[in-house]
Specification:
2 helices; 4-stranded mixed sheet; 107 residues; Hypothetical Protein Aq_1857, Chain: A; alpha/beta; 47% strand; 9 strands; 3-stranded mixed sheet
């Protein structure tokens, strides 16, 4: 089981945590929503919970709850800037389809 980060994503997380002044890493999960079924939930984590699974890469911790991991195992997290827009992007090998707007997915 794994979650990986591109160097762009790792740099973004490190820089944000540094400017924020606290936090242990990035919390990644999913929730049921949207027209396709699931959407990614991304937050900065202030602590590691007892049920969190922790992946560390490039000096960054990514925390995932056990329930979400089955849906996002193998996902690569990237951070992309396009013009004025910037966002985390996900390459999830488990995705079978996505909605037209790209906000939700099916597995």
């Amino acid at each position: 089981m794994s979650i990986s980060l591109t160097s762009s994503a790792a740099d973004r997380i490190k820089n944000f945590l540094h400017s924020r002044g606290h936090g242990v890493g990035l919390r990644l999960g999913i929730k049921k929503t949207g027209c396709s079924g699931y959407a990614y939930v991304v937050n900065y984590a202030d602590e590691i919970g007892a049920t969190d699974i922790v992946f560390e890469q490039q000096g960054v911790k990514v925390l995932v709850d056990k329930e979400s991991l089955g849906y996002i195992d193998g996902t690569e997290v990237d951070f992309v800037k396009q013009g004025l827009n910037e966002a985390f992007k996900f390459r999830n090998p488990n995705v079978k389809g996505e909605c037209g707007c790209g906000e939700s997915f099916t597995v």
